[in-house]
């Protein structure tokens, strides 16, 4: 299992490798405190702070430690958020989806569901993963509900797991297995497209 930057196209959005050209749009998204509430970074005050985050992410991609995707809304061509593959363990055929954020006007739209649908399809069908993990701050109920709707199983809580901007958070872990993906994919496709044929 080897990860490499790739572009994933859906009906509503396209996931493409994060690049500096995405920084201005991301800066506007990330300035919203509510968007960054449970993330490891505070809302940026200057574009240069966002550029620094993008450059750090690109360095991790260059070393094949992660893939960071810009989420581009097809209707406008604007970058509306980001998501990434991390904790890549080829020997275990395991990867984690995380560090996901989305512009608030796109909450409660198909954006996050289709983003996860595209990434999960890539993980199980192209990378050959047997397990994909997702985790979230225990305080982030909205995120937990969204992960559960993907068909992922809640595995448990790691108490005082991470220090996030001075707060020692509990982390809720979820996973989806290769044997569970076909049914989860069918349900997600039905929700997104009204059909199980579109991918």
Provide an overview of this structure:
By secondary structure, the chain is α+β, with helices and mostly antiparallel strands. The protein has a single domain, classed as Gcn5-related N-acetyltransferase (GNAT) (Aminopeptidase), CATH 3.40.630. Helix content is 34%, strand content 33%. It has six helices and eight strands; from the N terminus they run ββαααβββαβαββα. It has helices at residues 23-30, 33-36, 47-62, 110-126, 141-149, 181-193, and strands spanning 8-9, 13-17, 67-73, 78-89, 94-102, 131-137, 153-164, 167-177. Strands 1-2-3-4-5-6-8-7 form an eight-stranded mixed beta sheet, with helices on both faces. The longest helix is centred in the middle third of the chain and has 17 residues, at 110-126.
Short note summarizing the structure:
The protein is α+β, with helices and mostly antiparallel strands and 199 residues long.
Spatial shape: globular
Q: What is the architecture at the second tier of CATH?
A: 3-Layer(aba) Sandwich
- Provide a count of the helices: 6
State the order of secondary-structure elements, H for helix, E for strand: EEHHHEEEHEHEEH
* Estimated radius of gyration: 16 Å
Could you tell me how far the N terminus lies from the C terminus, measured between alpha carbons in angstroms?
22 Å
Estimated structural class: alpha+beta
Predict the CATH topology. Answer: Aminopeptidase
**Number of E-type strands:** 8
CATH-level-4 superfamily name: Gcn5-related N-acetyltransferase (GNAT)
Could you describe the largest sheet, including whether it forms a barrel? Answer: 8 strands, mixed
Which stretches are poorly predicted, pLDDT < 50 over at least 5 residues? none
How many domain units? 1
Assign the CATH class: Alpha Beta
């Amino acid at each position: 299992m080897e990860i490499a930057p790739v572009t994933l196209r859906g009906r509503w959005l396209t996931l493409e490798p994060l690049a500096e050209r995405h920084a201005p749009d991301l800066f506007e998204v990330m300035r919203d405190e509510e968007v960054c509430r449970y993330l490891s970074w505070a809302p940026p005050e200057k574009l240069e702070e966002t550029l620094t985050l993008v450059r750090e992410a690109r360095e991790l991609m260059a070393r094949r430690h992660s893939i960071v995707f810009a989420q581009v809304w097809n209707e406008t061509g604007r970058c509306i958020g980001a998501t990434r593959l991390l904790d890549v363990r080829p020997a275990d055929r395991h990867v984690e989806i995380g560090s996901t954020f989305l512009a608030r006007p796109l909450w409660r739209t198909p954006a996050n569901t289709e983003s996860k649908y595209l990434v999960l399809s890539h993980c199980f069908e192209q990378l050959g993963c047997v397990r994909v993990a997702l985790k979230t701050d225990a305080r982030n109920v909205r995120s937990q509900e969204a992960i559960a709707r993907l068909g992922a199983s809640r595995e448990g809580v790691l108490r005082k797991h991470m220090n996030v901007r001075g707060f020692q958070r509990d982390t809720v872990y979820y996973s989806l297995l290769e044997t569970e993906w076909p049914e989860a994919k069918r349900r997600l496709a039905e929700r997104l497209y009204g059909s199980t044929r579109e991918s």
